[in-house]
Amino acid sequence: MHRHTSSMLLAAAAVGAAACGTKDQAAARPDSAATVAAVAPATPNVVTVHAADYKFDAPDTIPGGVTTFRLINDGETLHHLQIVRLDSTKTFTDLQQNLAKPGRLPGWVVFVGGAGAPDPKSESNATMVMPAGNYALLCFVNLPGGVPHVAKGMTKALTVTAASGQGAALPNADVTMTLSDYTFALSKPLAAGHQTIEVKNAGPQLHEIELIKLAPGKTADDFMKWVQKPAGPPPGSGVGGIAGTIPGQSLYFTAEVTPGDYLLVCFLPDLKDGKPHFAHGMIQTVTVS
User: What is the pLDDT of residues 254-273, one digit of tens each?
Assistant: First the structure.
């Protein structure tokens, strides 16, 4: 994809010309400081998405490259930001027509991640590489009432244009979470403080990580019972995480982690039997001291 030889020759010529120019200018002005200003590294493009009951407020078009999605939950219930790419020249209209049908979405709808669900009136984030193309923002959370929010119109089209300029680097992770069938493996224990977490899907199917801080004295069983029948205050708080993504992907999110018990859970349905992955054991409690 890159013309290595011609690019290297052009770059060498440019560097040589710049060096000669710098020497000539320094000789003409002995008092000048022949220094090169440090260039600040590029930072990810930040895209703010507001989630309400039941719609997204977000830009229609964003530039490609490393992007941080900041999800602000203005609603009264949980919402997440599931981003899907529409391949094979498909459009948002094609997606809407398929969402109206029962059954699985077609293969040209590619789940590429997004921000996990924060509590109402709070926010979460996800940093990821966004190639140019047609995308959509979706919310599949089904609380309350068991109806996925996409069925209530919580969808939005997104166009990503070709990246330009100097590309940003991906974040440096404090801890890596590797998702597989059906476990979460942490590179080291989750620590208190501001944490940058890398999420890798080792497959072989879609996975997500929702990070939930359990209320004091509450357990994973308490929270899952509440999910099945959400009556009264929830026994935990949504912190964020990474929405469903295909195998082989690495995405990042940040969170302010405070001491306590946390639940790691994947709610996605299994390809074989349709049961949620937590029913296959993809649920784990970790303690942060």
Answer: 999 999 999 999 999 999 99
